[in-house]
From TrEMBL:
It is found in: Membrane. InterPro entries: 7TM_GPCR_Srsx, 7TM_GPCR_Srsx_nematod, GPCR_Rhodpsn. It comes from Pristionchus entomophagus. The chain crosses the membrane at residues 7-27, 47-66, 86-107, 127-150, 162-180, 200-220. Keywords: Membrane, Transmembrane, Transmembrane helix. This is G protein-coupled receptor. One of its GO terms (cellular component) is membrane. GO terms for molecular function: G protein-coupled receptor activity. The keyword Transmembrane helix applies. It holds the Pfam family 7TM_GPCR_Srsx. The keyword Transmembrane helix applies.
Length: 223
């Protein structure tokens, strides 16, 4: 049913836009590949990283919205078309507003190597990681609940395909987003210094980049 899928397709498109904005942030780190450490004003870095940070907010909240949309279409199939989808937009906008506020609240004039976490300082990094982790834990719970609900309906080939797609999303896409902020939170609790956080931060981001890279196969090859 095209009508049933329209909201989900729109949310996936918004996810894609968020992921593209997010990946623009990696361009600022390109000199690091050649062992070139450029330090710029934190204000300039905030301007450069604003759209990538919004991309992260959009991407994380969109994953949750896609999961909620699929869960509602299964649990409340008869009433799904009449449900108000405005809440999805409010969730995405709210996530962006929070991260924008966190960037402003964490701002401190200084010279720094510009990367995704540079706009946040100390507690700001902790709050950013915890907020991202919370959203993605909620996503994992929603997808897992939907997957469990679909198991009882998995007699048809279409239900089995949906079941498989949800399983892949949880294990690859959502898990990638869970591991990275989870590691950031652990590193913060362990009291890593700035240099350690900088180095281990790049390692942690591998999991998110893997999740982003395979989205084409997750959302379209398994539909």
């Amino acid at each position: 049913n095209r009508t049933l899928r329209s909201t989900c397709n729109l949310l996936i498109a918004i996810c894609a836009v968020g992921d593209i904005l997010h990946e623009f942030g990696t361009l600022a780190q390109f000199p690091l590949l050649f062992n070139i450490y450029l330090e710029i004003d934190s204000a300039l870095c905030d301007y450069i990283m604003f759209l990538p940070e919004m991309g992260i907010s959009i991407g994380c909240s969109c994953i949750l919205c896609v999961g909620l949309d699929r869960m509602l279409s299964v649990v409340f199939a008869a009433r799904y078309l009449s449900l108000n989808k405005l809440y999805y937009h409010l969730l995405i906008i709210g996530s962006c507003v929070f991260v924008a506020w966190l960037m402003v609240a964490s701002y401190q004039e200084r010279k720094a190597t510009c990367e995704i976490l540079t706009p946040f300082l100390d507690k700001g990094i902790d709050l950013f990681a915890q907020a991202t982790l919370t959203i993605n834990m909620a996503s994992a719970l929603v997808y897992f609940s939907t997957w469990i609900g679909l198991r009882s309906q998995a007699a048809s080939a279409s239900m089995k395909k949906i079941n498989r797609a949800l399983f892949i999303i949880v294990t690859v896409d959502v898990s990638g987003w869970l591991v990275t902020p989870g590691l950031f939170t652990i590193f913060q609790k362990l009291g890593f210094n700035c240099k350690q956080m900088f180095s281990w931060g790049f390692f942690s981001k591998i999991f998110i980049n893997i999740a982003l890279s395979v989205k084409l196969f997750i959302y379209y090859s398994t539909r």
